Amino acid sequence: MRLSPGLLLGLLFSAVPLISAPVGPGLLLPSGAKAAWVLAPGKALPAVTRFDIDAGGGLWLLPVPRVLTRGDGLSLVMEKEVRDLAFAPGSLRLVTDSVAGSLRLKKHKAGLAGQLQPKLILPSPAGRLAKGGPDGVVAFGWEADNARSVLYRVDDRRKVLVWPERVLAAEGTASSWFLATPSGIVRVSRQGQASRWGSLPGGVSSLAWVEGAGLVAAGPQGAALFRDAGKLLPLVVAKSPRVRSRGSALYVLLPEQGGVLKITGLAAPAP
User: CB under 8 Å to 88, separation ≥6 — which residues?
Assistant: First the structure.
């Protein structure tokens, strides 16, 4: 009997036991890959936590919509609720339900406070950001009146992609967009050609493109690497992780463990 990639991943996720915190999650890393804690496990983080890594390798977390924290302990209280964060060259981008922009620091009686400097007013609630490769950071959301998802480049408000399904997560490269939808992951070339890429049991909540390795998708039961369409390699077995990348390094947020892993050495082996 042949097992589909999605079913095989589901069996792996159910069969591999989690290693209890603070040691870490179940890892299924390929030969040559290494994992290390960027944020050591501790108190569990809220499931809604968002995160990203700055150009210097520094960790930024958004554990609740009004608090932005940095790995070195700096904590900023935001004037408005923030739904997501992502780094573009030069600065941090943030998004509320309807406004995307950059982080501005201002003096506060308790020290520093964070303020959103608007760059883009969204025509419909979005609350999500994605790395867009040459497009920088994009904000996206569902336009109910038009029954479509729209991705906007934050810095110049240009519409970069329209898709007829609800987009749950997105990631851009120089040649393509990857969209996580209720029906699975779709690859859309910069010329507009679309193809199905794969799926995870329970759906996909975040995506990350790792240079030299491929697309990493995270869902309710863990994270897996797609080196190509349908070619799935399970990486992490954990409850509801989130993924980001910087260059050839993958970062995995593990809410239950309260930690963040950095995984390197995922590049595809030479033929």
Answer: 136, 137, 154, 155
Cα–Cα dist 118/80, whole Å: 12
> Token pair of 158, please?
């240009």
Burial 83-111 (b: 16+ CB within 10 A, else e): bbbbbbeeebbbbbebbbbbbeeeeeeee
Question: 134 preceded by cis ω (within 30°)?
Answer: no
The token pair that represents 266 in the structure block:
């995922």
CB 150 within 8 Å of CB 179: no
Per-residue pLDDT of the chain (271 residues; tens, 9 = 90+): 333 434 334 434 333 333 333 334 689 889 899 999 999 999 999 999 999 999 989 999 999 999 999 888 888 888 889 999 999 877 899 999 889 999 887 766 656 678 889 999 887 776 799 999 999 999 998 888 899 999 999 988 899 999 999 999 999 999 999 999 999 999 999 999 999 999 999 999 999 999 999 999 999 999 999 999 888 999 999 999 999 999 999 999 999 999 999 999 999 776 6
Instruction: Kindly list the domain boundaries of the chain, sorted by start residue.
Output: 5-263
Alpha carbons 22 and 190: distance in angstroms, whole number: 42
- CATH class as words, domain 5-263: mainly beta
Q: 3-state SS of the chain: helix, strand, coil percent to 5?
A: 5, 50, 40
Query: What counts of helices (H) and strands (E) characterise the chain?
Result: 1, 25
Where b means 16+ CB within 10 Å and e means fewer, 242-266 reads bbbbbeebbbbbbbbbbbbbbbbbb
Residue with tokens 């097992």: 3
